[in-house]
Amino acid sequence: MVATATATASLNKFEKIKSEKDGLAVKAQLEDFAKIGWEAMEEGDRDYRLKWLGIFFRPVTPGKFMLRLRLPHGIINADQMRVLAEIVQRYGSDGNADITTRQNLQLRGIRLEDIPEIFRLLKAVGLTSVQSGMDNVRNITGSPVAGIDADELFDTRELVQQVQDMITNKGEGNPEFTNLPRKFNIAIAGCRDNSVHAEINDIAFIPAFSGESFGFNVIVGGFFSAKRCDAAIPLNAWVTPEEVVPLCRAILEVFRDNGLRANRQKARLMWLIDEWGIEKFRSEVEKQLGKTLKEAAAKDEIIWEKCDRIGVYRQKQPGFNYVGLHIPVGRLFAQDMLEIARIADVYGKGEIRLTVEQNIIIPHINDACLAAFLSESIIKKFAINPTPLTRALVSCTGAEFCNFALIETKNRAVELMQELETELTLKKPVRIHWTGCPNSCGQPQVADIGLMGTKVRKNGQTLEGVDIYMGGKVGKDAQLGTCIRKSVPCEDLKPVLRELLIKHFDAEINSEFSN
Ligand code: SRM
Ligand code: SF4
């Protein structure tokens, strides 16, 4: 739909871009873009609309694009991983991949002229990157051990795929959902440990029984933004697994048609819920759905602390194990990806899973092969028993590639954790999350200690610094952390973190570092 000149005059920049031409329309122009090159492209297409196809122009590395995939439930097979490895391999030291905080992969270094061929390669192995950026529904998350965890309540893999298929028209792109007021996150949990961080999604399905029947309580409106962060609130609805796809559709339609669009800082679903009140929102969803929603079950089944799944675990299938490998801050290079694909093929069934903590799980390793699997040299690089601070470290992209970033994150995070670990002994992991700016992609509010990038003045100079968050609780009774200290220069951060670790997490100073 193309808006009239008078109508577009009052729209904000992003609404204007969308009303002039749907983001998905650039799909038909990729061969042309590849021919003319990124420098000659119209800015709206290059900087924004390409994101509807998961292609992100990076002002920090102009000409080297980022490609964000969609990996529903964070599941990928070895053939797919090899294709992705071969894609980043062609870019040499510019090429790598990051596991994201939504159980997904982003490829780096991509050149526009290669996109048509890359898309053919992705399609051949059943991968898509469609609708993964801008005002679209992001990668849909689920328990990383669905179908293999002996204690799960429901295997959500098929459901997550169905929701993605509905939203993206089976990966081809679906103009019904390409002009939402803002980005949108969905999570579906069939596990007991809230592995998906349900509370920070626009819609989350949480396992709950109504009498004897299994289904989900639904919470809505959770989000982080620079302006505001809020945990999701109950919709007071319980749905069966069969009702999940229609309910997602109905909520998306209500959001699409009624969500606030004037101010981009106030366009996420929670702002509409605020304006209407949850009762009216619920009844509008019911109207769209064409039926009454059943009231929420009295209690849900999230009764465990969150498990990071690093290490060796028995599967529900007798004789099989899954092994969680720690991938420092989620960064992979082509050779790593090829190795991971190989060990998944040789020892498992060619399946690889990603976690929201930016790690990898290889399932289906039978008892007889386990020792050989664990002696593979890649297990030294991607440990099954990493040290406590490194183990639970999460970081967003930061200044290396992201133009919103106020600080460098990933490399700094790894180095600082290693330094702290030489000075301190910790008995258990402390979840430290880094995020390069207040957009909170690294989810500092769910961490034990969250570090949010900022600029700091010190001795007349502007330096990279962080605001410190604490109190994030995950799993059962999840709650968001809050800012406890502002504007700590990164160069002064180590002693501050050391004190916090000693005071709140029982860290002990190693003898060579005590005075
Ligand atoms: Fe994010 C924008 C990276 C998870 C909140 N996020 C961005 C952009 C696209 C900005 C840009 O164009 O440069 C970043 C791309 C940088 C790059 O080159 O990698 C970016 N976000 C990421 C990832 C890769 C962080 C990571 O290292 O893992 C995550 C990708 C997930 C995925 O696979 O789709 C990522 N972003 C999140 C999350 C966490 C989550 O979903 O659990 C959040 C907070 C939760 C939420 O959205 O409610 C998040 N990202 C944002 C926001 C703030 C949204 C808002 O309502 O204001 C922005 C800015 C925006 O959309 O305008 C943003
Ligand atoms: Fe970029 Fe900020 Fe998101 Fe980090 S939190 S990836 S710096 S937008």
From TrEMBL:
Entry keywords, A to Z: 4Fe-4S, Heme, Iron, Iron-sulfur, Metal-binding, Oxidoreductase
Major enzyme class: oxidoreductase
Enzyme Commission code: 1.7.7.1
Domain Nitrite/sulphite reductase 4Fe-4S: residue ranges: 134-292, 390-501
UniProt domain Nitrite/Sulfite reductase ferredoxin-like: residue ranges: 63-125, 313-374
GO molecular function: ferredoxin-nitrite reductase activity
Keyword Membrane: no
InterPro entries (alphabetical): Cbl_synth_CobG-like, NIR_SIR_4Fe-4S, NiRdtase/SiRdtase_haem-b_fer, Nit/Sulf_reduc_fer-like_dom_sf, NO2/SO3_Rdtase_4Fe4S_dom, NO2/SO3_Rdtase_4Fe4S_sf, NO2/SO3_Rdtase_FeS/sirohaem_BS
Family: Belongs to the nitrite and sulfite reductase 4Fe-4S domain family.
NCBIfam families in alphabetical order: CobG, PRK09566.1
Name of the protein in question: Ferredoxin--nitrite reductase
Species per Swiss-Prot/TrEMBL record: Floridaenema fluviatile BLCC-F154
Top-level taxonomy: Bacteria, Bacillati, Cyanobacteriota, Cyanophyceae, Oscillatoriophycideae
